[in-house]
């Protein structure tokens, strides 16, 4: 048996040694591949709103490209080495097999064929994996180069935007005069000054238009509490930004506090809301609720006047309990549950999320209100009972479903529309809503609850309502509503008002003073 393998065909000692070395080498290649970092670039291009931010992102993308290209080359090199060893092994096995076929032993020939087949499979597999790694590496490099191109194009556009604004290509510095925007401008500009709210969202929607560009923002000042404020680069005016003073179009209505604050709202539209009492410093302010001992056991709600979305709502069994649960450093409105509420399919409490677009024109006195023909129902998780004081039963916060297939919507839409029109007309005529020397707008939601008689009660306004984009919520989103609102505010040839319905145009009182950045959000 000397000089022959266990299978019966001859194998030289040198060949056995080379085969073992090649097998060990292939194993070392596999081990090395398992330790190499993956070919995954975690940094991808994202829209930048400032020069420094854009430069930093470009540098990160370049560094990632350098590292990932090196990692990809290493993956391919190791795979190529593995394939080379598989090739050598297949050649050695083929040589030994040829010698075996010169022998009359059938078993030796069968064993040789199996060895050739196994070596060939390893070689094919290794070559396939090498090709895959080459394609993966090339694909990753191409993807990263595209991300770098996007970042580079953005920096080029930012530079052009800065040059255009500096050379007078932007809007007039609104807040000091009412000069016309001009119809011969090539580009319109938006800037994110990090004030919050829906400012950046509105910028993204405006940037879908072919003639809108980003104008970068920069640090403006820092207050004693370390709070940073930003402005468009060079304190220039732009067409839209969330920092009102520098914006031709303002996204905050002056006087919005009269809509946000439930106590202030009740002062001028008590006929549209549930009967409301006030607690301040843990004492009744004004009228005190009557003894409820003989009344129906409807729940009572304790609500902080300047907080929305149900975050401050406490459900109580009586007005007395509301007073007991009030904190000394807050102001509350107290309301008893409306009688005979209209319940949803399985007996759950529900309320309407009703969307409105309020616009103050740049003449300072004209107001327009649009209401949206679609909306949402907020439905409680549990069936309603007047005795159950849990939030799951009594408080409806989250938008649950679209309202367009609710059979009561066509019956109550007109009532909700008329109610909001009354609110805005009174607020404008009484000077609670203040005009500016430039256009201002806001998308506001109103919460309505309905009775079985199809009467509607206004509960509150939300001046920063939840809005969903198609990119984040493909099935249920508000992209059409936002696009339509921005088209009404700033029309363009590719736009549409969508489902917005003109509900009111009225005149208010003339502006009290010239625009300044200190009055932007009241």
TrEMBL record:
Entries under InterPro entries matching the protein: TTL/TTLL_fam
Cross-referenced Pfam families: TTL
Protein name listed in UniProt: Uncharacterized protein
Taxonomic path: Eukaryota, Sar, Alveolata, Dinophyceae, Suessiales
Origin superkingdom: Eukaryota
């Amino acid at each position: 048996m000397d000089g022959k393998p266990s299978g019966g065909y001859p194998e030289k000692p040198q060949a056995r040694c080379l085969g073992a070395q090649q097998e060990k080498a292939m194993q070392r290649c596999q081990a090395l591949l398992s330790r190499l970092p993956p070919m995954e670039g975690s940094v991808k291009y994202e829209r930048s709103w400032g020069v420094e931010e854009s430069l930093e992102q470009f540098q990160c993308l370049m560094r990632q490209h350098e590292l990932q290209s090196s990692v990809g080359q290493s993956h391919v090199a190791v795979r190529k080495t593995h394939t080379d060893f598989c090739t050598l092994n297949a050649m050695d096995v083929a040589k030994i097999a040829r010698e075996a076929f010169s022998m009359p032993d059938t078993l030796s020939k069968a064993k040789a064929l199996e060895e050739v087949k196994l070596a060939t499979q390893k070689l094919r597999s290794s070559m396939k994996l090498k090709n895959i790694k080459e394609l993966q590496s090339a694909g990753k490099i191409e993807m990263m180069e595209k991300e770098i191109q996007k970042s580079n194009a953005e920096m080029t556009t930012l530079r052009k935007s800065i040059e255009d604004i500096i050379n007078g290509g932007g809007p007039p510095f609104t807040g000091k005069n009412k000069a016309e925007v001009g119809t011969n401008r090539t580009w319109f500009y938006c800037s994110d000054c990090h004030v919050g709210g829906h400012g950046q969202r509105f910028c993204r929607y405006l940037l879908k238009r072919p003639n809108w560009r980003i104008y970068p923002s920069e640090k403006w000042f820092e207050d004693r509490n370390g709070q940073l404020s930003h402005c468009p680069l060079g304190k220039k005016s732009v067409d839209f930004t969330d920092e009102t003073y520098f914006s031709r179009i303002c996204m905050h209505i002056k006087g919005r506090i009269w809509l946000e604050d439930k106590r202030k709202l009740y002062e001028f539209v008590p006929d549209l809301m549930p009967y409301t009492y006030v607690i301040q410093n843990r004492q009744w302010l004004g009228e005190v609720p009557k003894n409820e001992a003989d009344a129906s056991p409807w729940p009572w709600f304790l609500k902080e006047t300047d907080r929305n979305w149900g975050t401050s709502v406490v459900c109580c069994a009586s007005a007395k309990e509301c007073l007991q649960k009030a904190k000394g450093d807050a102001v509350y409105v107290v309301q008893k549950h409306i009688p005979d509420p209209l319940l949803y399919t399985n007996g759950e409490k529900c309320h309407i999320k009703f969307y409105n677009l309020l616009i103050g024109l740049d003449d300072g006195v004209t107001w327009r209100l649009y209401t949206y023909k679609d909306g949402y129902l907020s439905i409680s998780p549990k069936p309603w009972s007047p005795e159950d004081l849990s939030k799951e039963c009594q408080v409806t916060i989250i938008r649950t479903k679209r309202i367009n297939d609710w059979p009561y919507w066509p019956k109550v839409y007109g009532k909700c529309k008329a109610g909001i029109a009354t609110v805005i007309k009174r607020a404008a005529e009484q000077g609670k809503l203040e005009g500016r020397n430039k256009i201002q707008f806001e998308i506001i939601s109103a919460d309505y609850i309905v009775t079985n008689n199809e009467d509607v009660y206004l509960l509150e306004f939300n001046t920063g309502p939840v809005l969903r984009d198609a990119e984040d919520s493909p099935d249920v989103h508000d992209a059409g509503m936002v696009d339509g609102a921005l088209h009404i505010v700033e029309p363009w040839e590719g736009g549409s008002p969508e489902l917005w319905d003109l509900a009111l145009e009225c005149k208010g009182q003339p502006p009290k003073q010239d625009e300044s950045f200190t009055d932007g959000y009241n």
